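Narrative progress, year one. The postdoctoral researcher (J.K.) led the effort to move from monomer predictions toward full complexes, under supervision of the PI. The following entry was the first complex the group processed end to end, covering 669 residues in total.
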Amino acid sequence: MLRAAFAILAKDVRIEARTKESLASALVLGVLLVVVFSIAHDAPPDEAPRLAPAVVWVTFIFTGLLGVQRSFVIEREHEALAGVLVAPVDPAALYVGKLLGNVLLLGVMQAIIVPLVAVLLHVDLVPVLPALVLVLLLGNLGFASLATLFAAVTVRARAREVMLPVLLLPLLVPVLVGGVKATQAVLAGGLAAAGEPLAVLAAFDVIFTTAGVLLFEQVVRD
Amino acid sequence: MRLVDALLPWLAGVLVLAALWLIFVVVPTEAQMGIIQRIFYVHVPCAWAAYAGFFVVAGASAAYLWTGRPGADRLAVAGAEVGVLFCTLVLITGPIWARPIWGVWWTWDPRLTMTVILWSIYAGYLLLRGFAGEEEAVARWAAVLGIVGVLAIPVIRVSVRLLQGIHPAVLTTREGGSGLGDPTMRLTLYVASLAVLALAVWLMRVRVRIAALAGEVTALRRTVDAREGAVA
Amino acid sequence: MSAPPIAARGLRREWGGRAVLAGVDLRVEGGDVVALRGANGAGKTTLLRVLATLLRASAGELSLFGHDVRAHAADARRRLGWVGHDTACYPDLTGRENLGFHAALHGIRQAAARVGEMLAWAGLEAAADRPLRTYSRGMAQRLALARALLHRPALLLLDEPFSGLDAESAERLAVLLAELRRAGTAVVLSSHDAGRLAGLATRTATLVRGRLEWS
């Protein structure tokens, strides 16, 4: 099972490395969102750091939606997914492979956007970097667990562009709230202060990764 | 079942009349909040009916994924529509109640936030069913959403508690309102709840029947089309 | 006696209240080449996709090599190869990478050697390291076949494999099918082109009103 999941992950990474389509659009959108939020708030330099957690998480969610949807669009071209479905591969392996790919994509994008936010909003990240990485990782996993499941649905639906955000945003509230609160706590006092929101993120990750593994077959097979 | 279907609207009607009579004529005015408090007897039962609808969606969705029976799918849609209907009523009666008491139409209090998110999840469910297209698989996708939605409820509830509870005093007042001392008030609440529940069940059964009939019509139309195609 | 490649009974598949497949019975042994005919929209693609386990039948039983497709899906698919209307490959990957991916999915040992072998068979060695999107239609079709044959399937399902092929590719395909028949592989293929199928098929069935009629 893992072998198939890694094969799928490797395939997606290879395609993305070649076309860079998802990463490029996610990055451009991400930078744009950060800039727009910053301008709209127009906060003075001493107040700006307070905006950072919210700006960062809202940006990630919207750019994440873009990237995740695309990871299934490539399966629709030339009926590529059918080639995977006729192979003796557990649908859960397909889910895990796609999930890891999306987490990776988010991570790479964040590696660029987070420092950018630090610069634009005068936030000192260096002392809390490891803690921040943990928060981002837990958040990415939570986001990707549901986004991967539903992107497989919306890629076949009409009104695809609006359907994915509409379905996912209410369900992702715990990731948003947990992520923002954890980031705030980490920036203020380090990992210890972020216990509660991290627990929420972790619980979300466990519940919805499990749900995704169990339910993915229902959305991907006819 | 036919008997139940025939009696249900009458039962619901009687209960609604009884509830209205209790709410407007019998029950005493609450001391702190005044007349506006009577909306509580509609607001709370609607919330219960909404939750009932959403649990029906979850159960019917699971049944549909397990058995593939179209009846389960029809029940899921009915549950979602009725749930969203009553949730909308909660979101309308709430602010009407809140405005004179708190001075604001809305706060981002955990419970209110939770209700709005819940409404959004199931409104999304209805959008998916309505706009996803003609594929057969739509029912299955919606079922997955129905199950995920119900799984999300406890997690969302815990996570919104992390938000600033802005007006704890306000929350206590709401809480105080449901700790009913007066037995007449309790009776009114129970009767109103039964009335709303009866309405909800009746609406769901009607909706399921409509869906079944619509399915039959589509099947008949397809058969006619196929036959005409063959002759032509 | 080992289990037949296909043992299907009473397959039904509805679409919008109409029965596209209305009780299909089919038994295919190794070395059979079954030609599937029928008018456009008769359900040939649906039947092939059900047999390929891409679609679930709403009723009926289907076993591939003795494995029920519902209970033991992975085992059923192990010796199955399928080529549909499209290549089922990724346009941004090279031919070699596409085959390498499918080799990994099937857990093929010494994948690189096998991939090289299939690329040679398909005559795609020169184009092996170019992205699929640069291939001509004939080349893409050959890659799709290579993908389907990579894991040496004992059952091959082909949906209109001759459509859009130039004469040379069509001849190559016909030769392949004859070889497969000799080697004991079971093949089910659909086509409009009666002439093409005549020489190749051991049996011919037509899908009429959701049922198979044998000729």
